Amino acid sequence: METIFSKLKPGGIYELMCHPGRFNASEISDARLMSYHDWDGELALLKSQKVHALYEKFGIRLSHYQK
């Protein structure tokens, strides 16, 4: 993440595409999805103190999509 963040130009608007969440075997039956998604891992990474420190270091402000 640090490598990615270091290449962003200040003042720009960027989108980080990810699918954080909790894996629920009763909701996911497609083996193809399970082979390349790590919902719990993405959620843990995005909530980690290390990534929040990178947000601070690179002046990244989080927002959400709103119509």
Which key features would you list for this structure?
43% helix; 67 residues; 4 helices; mainly alpha
How would you describe this structure to a colleague?
With 67 residues, the protein is mostly helical. Helices cover 43% and strands 0% of the residues. It contains 4 helices and no strands. It has helices at 2-6, 31-36, 39-47, 49-57.
How is the topology of this model organized?
Layout: H1 2-6, H2 31-36, H3 39-47, H4 49-57
Summarize the model shown.
This protein is mostly helical. Helices cover 43% and strands 0% of the residues.
Shape: elongated
The count of β-strands is 0
Give the percentage of residues in beta strands. Answer: under 5%
Largest sheet: none
